[in-house]
Amino acid sequence: MEISSKENTHFFSNNTILPMDRSSFKSESSSSKEKQSCCGGIKIFLGALSFVYFAKALSGSYLKSTITQIERRFDIPSSLVGVIDGSFEIGNLLIIILVSYFGAKLHRPRIIGAGCLIMSAGTFLIAMPQFFMGRYRYERFPSTINSTVSISPCLQDKSQTPLSALEKSQAKINAGCEKEAGSSMWIYVLLGNLLRGIGETPIQPLGITYIDDYAVEENAALYIGCVQTVAIIGPIFGFLLGSLCAKLYVDIGFVDLDSVAISPKDVQWVGAWWLGYLIAGVISVLAGIPFWFLPKHLPKPESRKDSSTSSEQSKFIVEENKDQRTCYQQQAKLAEMAKDFLPSLKNLFGNPVYILYLCASIIQFNSLIGMVTYKPKYIEQQYGQTSSKTNFVIGLINIPAVAFGIFSGGLIMKKFRIGVLGAAKLSLGSSFFGYLLLLSLFAMGCENSEVAGLTVSYHGTKPVTDYEHALFSECNSGCSCSQNDWDPICGENGVTYVSACLAGCRASNGSGKNTVFFNCSCVGTFESSQSSSAVVGPCQKGNECPKMFLYFLVISVITSYTLSVGGTPGYILLLRCIKPHLKSFALGIYTLAIRVLAGIPAPVYFGVAIDTTCLKWGSKRCGGRGACRLYDSSALRYVYLGLTLVLGTVSIFFSVAVLGVLRKKSSPQDETLSANGERGTCGTKSRKDNFVNSDQLIQSTYWPEKETRL
C-alpha cells in the first residue's frame, strides 16, 4: 500500500508538472510569435513609408524642374511662378497643427494613406490645364509653319498677303483671345500644389512617430535614417524625369511633330511638363495603398512595454491614469498646459543660442531655397542650355553631392566625437567656405547674346540704351513690323534678330525648322556681314560659354557638398542647446519659422528680382505682358548670385554670434555647456555624454524639405 501510494503520488506529481511545462512553452512560443509579428509589421510600415517619402520627394523636385516650362506655357512672370512654388508651404501650414495633434489619436496609417490620395489628386490637378487650354501656340512667322501661301516677312505692302489668309488668321486669334480672356489656367497649378502641401502634411510627423513608438528602441534611429536616405533618392529621379519630359514637345500625341517649327534650344520651347505630373500622381496613389491595410497599433516590443517616460518628451504630454480619469482632472490638465505655454515660449525665446541659430537658419534657407528654385532658369539663360540638359545635370550631379555632404557631416561628428562647440564650428566653417566658393561663380558667366536692337545696335556697336526704340532702324524702316513679336532668326553674321521682319528679310524658302530667309537688309548692313541670309532660331552663345558651363558645374557641385556638410552638425547644435522638456516645442517653432519666413517668401522675391533683368518680354494673344524671352546675362548673374551671397553672408554673421555665445557659456575644463542655467542653455555634462545620441541623429537628421531644396 505504501509503495502504491508513493507511486500514485509520484504519478500525480509528474502529471502536475507537465501542464506547467506546456504552459511555459506556450508563453515562450506566443512571445516569440508576438516579437516576429511586431518586427514584421514595423518593417512593412518602414517599407511603405520609405516609398511615400520617395514619392513626395520625386513630385516636389519635379515641380522645381518644370518652373521654366510652366512660366512659358502660361505666359506668366517669374514672380508669379514663385507664388505657385510657395503655395505648397501654405497648404502644409494650413493643417499641420491639426494633423500633428489629432492625427496621433486616430488611425495614423490610414491618415497617411488619405494624405497620399490628396497629394496625388493635387498632382493630377496640376496637369489638368494641358487638356483644357488647347494646343500651345508659339510666335512664328506664317511662312515657317508649313504655309502654302508665300508671304514676305517684310510686309512693305499688306496687299502682298491674300485677304482670305489674313482674315482667317485674325479670326483664329480673336476666337482664341475670347477663350483665354475668361480663364487663368495657372490657378489650377497653384491649387494643385496647395493640395500637394495638404496631402504631404501627415507623412512626416505621423510616420516618424509611428516608427518611434513601435520599433525596438535601438533600431528606431536606423529605421528613420533609412527613410531619409530613400527620400534623397527621390529628387534624383524627379530631375531625371524632368529631363526626359523636357525633351518631348508639350503637345506630343496631339499634333504632328514634323510641323513644329521650334527646337528645344528655343526659348519658346515647352516640353511635356504635364506628363511627369501624371506619372508622379500614379506613384503617389500606389504609395498610399499599403497604409489602408496596416493596423492602428502594433504590439510594442518587450523592452519598451514597461519603460518610463523618456526625457525627450515634452512636459506638455501629461500621463493619464485610466482608473482615476475624471472630467475635473482633464480640465485641470488642460488649464495647466495652457498656463505653461507662455512661460515655455518665453523660456525658449530667452535662450540666446536658440534665437540666434533660428535667425541664422531662416536667412540661410532663404538663400538656399531661392537659389535652388531658380537654378534651372539660371543655367538655361546664362549658359544657353536646354531644359532637358539642365535637369539632367542637376539630378545626376548636384543632388548626389548634397546626399554625400549630409552623410559626411554625420560621419565627421561620429568619428571625431564632436561636442556642441565643435558642431557650431563645423556648421560655421561649412557655410563660410560654401559661400566663399559661390563667390567665384561671378567670374564664370557668359556674355550677352548679340541680339540686334537689344544687346547690340544694328551696326554692331555696344551697348544699347534705349531698348524701346532700338528695335527699329533705317534698314527695317520700310517694313510693317511689330516690336512685341519674338520670332528670332540667326543671321550669317552671327547676330540674332528679334524677327525676320525686323531683320528686313524680303524673301524666304522652305518651311518649318528648315526655313531660310534671303535679302535681309539689316543683316547686310552689319559691320562684319558678308551675306544677307538668315535661318530660323537664335544664334548660339559665344565659344567660351561651354567651357564656362563646365567650370560652373564643378564649382556648383563642390559648393553643394560643402554647404551640406554643415546640415547635421547644425541640427545637433539645435537639439543640444535646449532643455529636454522643450525639444518638441522648439522643433515645432523652428519648422514653422522656416516654412513661413523662408519657404513661402523666398521664391517670390527672388522671382521679382530676376524679372528686373528681363530685356524682352513676350506678349499674350489678348494683349498684356507674357513670359520673359530674353534676359540680360550679366544683370541676371549679379542679381541671382548676389542675392544668394548677401543672404548667406548675413546668416554667417548670426552663426558667428552663436559661436560667440557658446564660447562664453562653455566651461574652461570642457567645450560643452552646463545644464544649470535658468534660461535654457545647452544641457550637456561632458563631451562623451553630449554625443550619446549623436549616432541616432546622424541617421535621423531632418529639416524642412531637405531632400528637395538643397
TrEMBL record:
Residues 669-688 are annotated as: Disordered. It comes from the Eukaryota. One of its GO terms (cellular component) is basolateral plasma membrane. Keywords: Cell membrane, Disulfide bond, Glycoprotein, Ion transport, Lipid transport, Membrane, Transmembrane, Transmembrane helix, Transport. The keyword Glycoprotein applies. The keyword Heme does not apply. GO terms for molecular function: bile acid transmembrane transporter activity; sodium-independent organic anion transmembrane transporter activity. This is Solute carrier organic anion transporter family member. It comes from Daphoenositta chrysoptera. The gene is Slco1c1_1.
